[in-house]
Amino acid sequence: MSAAQSTLVLLLALIGTTTCLGQDGTLSLSSGSAAPGASVTLNVSLNSSTTPPASLEWTLSYSTVDFSSVTIAAGPVAMGANKSVSCATGDGKSRCIVSGLNDATIPNGVVATMSLTVSTSTTDTSSPLQFASDVGAATGATSLAIASSGGVVTIVPALNGFSCTPLAVNPSTGSTCTVALTAAAGSGGAAISLGSSPADVAIPSTMTIPQGSTSTTFSVTAGGVTTPTLVTLTASYSGASETFGLTVNPSGAALSSLSVSPSTIVSGQSGTGTVTLTAAAPSGGAVVSLSSPNAAASVPASVTVPQGATSATFSVTTGTVNTPTSIKLTASFNGLSKTTGITVNPVAATLAGISVSPSTIVSGQSGTGTVTLTAAAPSGGAVVSLSSPNAAVSVPASVTVPQGATSATFSVTTGTVNTATSITLTASFNGLSQTTGITVNPVAATLASISVSPSTIVSGQSGTGTVTLTAAAPSGGAVVSLSSPNVAVSVPASVAVPHGATSATFSVTTGTVTTSTAVTLTAFYSGGTATFGLTVNPLAAAALSSLSVGSSMIVGQSGSGTVTLTSAAPSGGAVVTLSSSNSSAASVPASVTVAQGASSTTFPVTAGGVTVATYVTLTAAYAGVSKTVGLTVNATPAAAGISYVQGNYATPQTPQTQVSVKFPAAQAPGDVNVVVVGWNDSTAVVNAVTDSSGNTYSLAVGPTVLNGSLSQSIYYATNIMGCGAGANIVTVTFSVAAAYPDIRILEYNGINANNPVDVSVANSGRSRSGKSGSVTTTNADDLLFAADIVGTFTAKAGAGFTARTITLPDGDIVEDRTVTATGNYSATVPLDKNGPWIMQLIAFRAAQ
């Protein structure tokens, strides 16, 4: 058998055999140590107790986390036997075969060497290596049982940093150096060897990092040099070294400190920096380098400490910051550096202004408001308070300027106005307020319609036309042009809708027509047109011209009325129909006949039973034409003195520009109406007090205003016109929408019509009761009329007074009393709790 064949047989024997009982030899792996990144070499040794092997095979397991590379080579005994070692290494295993081209056996000794490189990233302190599947073969291809024992690589820490502070030393200033390991030192610590070149510093020759620690420090003391000298320090451990350079300066001045005053600076302002040396600066001065890592704090590139001085100052200039910014400044001299920290704070933001775009807004539309600060808002933002004094403009209670921003926007919402209204908005922040004015214009009014009542008119008679706008008329009113295409109907050239009103009436006069005639009237305003058709009928041969009756009667009294025609009654006479609005108070016959050829006739009027003065409307109708006349039926002749007749009130709970209240019962002519107008603000004023009967109202007292929260005035009308129940409506018109208006109307009989007001007084306050203050009357038989408006609720009338009304839900009272002698008088009312109030008192004279 050849040598090649013998080798092949041995290899096949190794591959195809199994381990027999008993051991023919032992493979063992030595142990060692190395630092991360370093290599360690271990020996694979053979010890045959019986038959020496001609070939060997083993598998060695290792950690890929702990070792970055593994290399196995033939050892001395293998090479001496002309054997080679081939290994397949990967995935933490190395499978090796020792074989050769001859039949020589392998003696005891080192069969192979194993070189392992410790991974730089491992954190383990030791790593085991184990054999597996170990077999051998003798020269005759007989399998041999091989035992094995693994080894351990102890991973020792490696040097992991060498630094010194400061970087320069001199005989009076040393440095402290730190040496670090990659891991904690093991048992007994880690001895680090130290050296310097040149030897111009004093350092220990060795130092020990204690067990369990990863670093230690040592001191460096400068030797004597005449010029700055660079010294290289070397630290050595476990076969590795690290170096660090220090500058050794000759004895003299060194940098001692760096400071800045003040240490906290407001953005845009400056501070003063100071560098200080350990000794006087040498000839030519000491140039100290300066630096700042942030543009928010600027320093010069250097500052020179003059010869003989120990310090020098420099300027620290700050830039713009939005938040407090910490900055570390550095000064360097002769290899030594010092630092100091400063804080740059942002400029405190204040309120710069408030604006609204657009500054003129149409009622019901919105705008955008903007608040602007003098600087960026601080951390958390800047909450700016907002307010509007008028409900015609609403703004949020506040708006927040975000952190770092200088402005923020908010919505401005407008309500309803009837006139152009100027309003001042206010923004407040950190005790400072800014204002801006805006104008709210009413919605532009356009022509809505024109109408005529009645729509059919007998020739020669009149009707009433009405023009209506889509919104309240602007300041100065709205002039609506009118036209009629036919002389059978005449209208004025124009009619003016008063400022703030939405409609106005005009007279429609008819001419003579012989046939029924249709006429279309046209109204023009602001480019808009509206039309209305009416019919003019020819006059009957005889038409009703008028109806008359005495103005008043007493219960049980009889009187007469007269109907008059436009011409003589026709053949058979003219039957005129009659009616009464209240037949119990005043009765008339169903009809009366104007005799043929006559133009008028009379009819009886009988007063019925009434307990109070009652207004009655009588109506006569003939040939499509109607006429009316008013009559007052009195219960008894009026007694001397003043008496209360009736009252009513209205308390809308939303802002109003106009409030109407109706007298529920008929009104007797000659009486006096009193109107109390209260509201819960000081912005609105009363523009007008009117009623549908055409009575004229005068101001008796007021307006009285309390702290901008309550207002009240009292008006009166004397010698009023008589009217039917519910026919007279009092209307109060304000300049702008008044908050919570409280309108009270009352009728009195027996007040002096020519000089009604004797004296008046008004008072206001905040308490549990309202007090008018005192008046001194000049007339013995006065009526003391008192009214309040409150922020709480009036519990009842004051002592000696009668409550005529307490409004709901507002709780405002009207009370009165009559007196029989002149003197000092006042009115009081109890309130349910402390609160604001206005109390007014008027003494009305009795009729003489």
Q: How many extended strands?
A: 71
Give start-end ranges of low-pLDDT stretches: 1-21
Measure the end-to-end span: 168 Å
Oligomerization state of this entry?
single chain
Q: How many H/I helices?
A: 2
**Main sheet characteristics:** 11 strands, mixed
From the alpha carbons, calculate the radius of gyration and give it in angstroms. 59 Å
Q: Globular, elongated, flat, extended or rod-shaped: what is the shape?
A: elongated
Strand fraction: over 45%
In helices, the fraction of residues equals under 10%
Q: Name the average pLDDT.
A: 88
Structural class category: mainly beta
Defining traits:
eleven-stranded mixed β-sheet, mainly beta, 2 helices, 848 residues, elongated, five-stranded mixed β-sheet, 57% strand, disordered N terminus
3D architecture notes:
This protein is mostly beta strands. The chain contains two helices and 71 strands. Strands 1, 2, 3, 4, 5, 6, 7, 8, 9, 10 and 11 form an eleven-stranded mixed β-sheet that branches. It starts with a helix and ends with a strand. Mean pLDDT is 88; it is low at 1-21.
Task: Compose a concise summary of this entry.
The protein is mostly beta strands and about 850 residues long. Helices cover about 0% and strands about 55% of the residues. The strands form 15 sheets. Strands 1, 2, 3, 4, 5, 6, 7, 8, 9, 10 and 11 form an eleven-stranded mixed sheet that branches. A five-stranded mixed sheet has the order 13-20-19-15-17, with no helix packed on it. It has a five-stranded mixed sheet with strand order 22-29-28-24-26, with no helix packed on it.
